[in-house]
Amino acid sequence: MSGLASMASKRWLPRSMASRLYLIILAGLLLAQGLSMALQSYERYQSAVSVMLNTVEHEVGTSVAILDRLPAQERPNWLGRLQRDNYRFLLGTGEPGKPLASERSREVIRRIAREVGPDYHVYGDNISVKPERYQVHLTLHDGSPLTLEVTPYMAPVASWLPVVLTLQLLLLLVCTWAAVRFATRPLTQLAQAADSMTPTADGPRMSEKGPTEVAHAAVAFNTMQERVARHLKERLHILASISHDLQTPITRMRLRAENLDEGEERKKILRDLHEMEHLVREGVAYARSAHGGAETPVRMNVEAFLESLVFDYQDVGKPVTLSDSIDGAAMVRQQALRRVLGNLVDNAIKYGGAAEVGAWRNAQGALCIAVSDRGPGIPEEELEQVLQPFYRLEASRNRDTGGAGLGLAIAAQLTRAIGGNLTLANREGGGLVATVTLS
Fold it and tell me: Which has more pLDDT, 89 or 265?
């Protein structure tokens, strides 16, 4: 049951925290306001009833005494003077009615009877329930019947009250909106700062001003960015140092191996040395790819850029073609983008035998560049994982089949560094499509 209640609450609750806070605070204020108005209305009703009972009790007693002492022919002239908002006097027996229906009417009869005394033979009849109307019958000392017709009613609401209530509701809405915005703005700024973080952690710093909790969160976030940046710099420094230190022994080993007699053993050693050099270069390239965003963006012609990239491959005999392109210019980090597309084209040639390059703009106006092949593709469940460093679809360490697992990771990280996004998708009819989206 608790699970069903939780699912039901999630269905009607808004998704954003600001909307939820707004709804909760506004609902609470409206309920509190409604309860306050209900209590005020009840208190007003009780006060009106109490005033009415006291008024009826004393004024009716005085009015009856006046009519009782007046000559019969003068009594009609006084009826208008003794009339009030909720009752009036009638000369005669009144209308036939039914027994009294409400406790309030019976209380009025008891009070009048107590005020005027038993000589007037007071009793009451109910004439109407909705609206409530009842009559109190009395007999004057000269035997003349006298009827008091009572029509209880609440005092009308003042004409200005609906205007005040409307203004009060508007004030509640504005104050609730301001409070929610003030409370959630730091969260929005924190989310925007987190989204704008780059792999080099050189994104904008949050302002450390404001309430204590907000300032503390901003300080913690800025400190985290600094730690991430420091960690990345240390990683790059370590990889660069390893690369530099490995180059010398690898070179010495290569020279020694080349001096060996021709044979299968010499070929194996040289192949292993070549693999070691390739691994070192790719490791350093991955570390440096995080800093691609340091390049200054330039305005370039997209079609000319892609044609230059494709022609460079065709000049060395690689099967790369330009399938689609777009006119116009775009602000991009040209060298970093060329490295990204180069990695994707190399990957397409390696696994698909050929590569196709195309470009377009999506509905949001962002530049999209795709590199496609007709290779074996990638299982759907592994499309995200292959963008991670050192992840390979094959368990083998053989570079001819599995590779080092850094080509796509370098492209993905470098794309993020220049403010873009790399996505992979299996191509209809077989193959893979790698799409770089630059906003």
Answer: 89
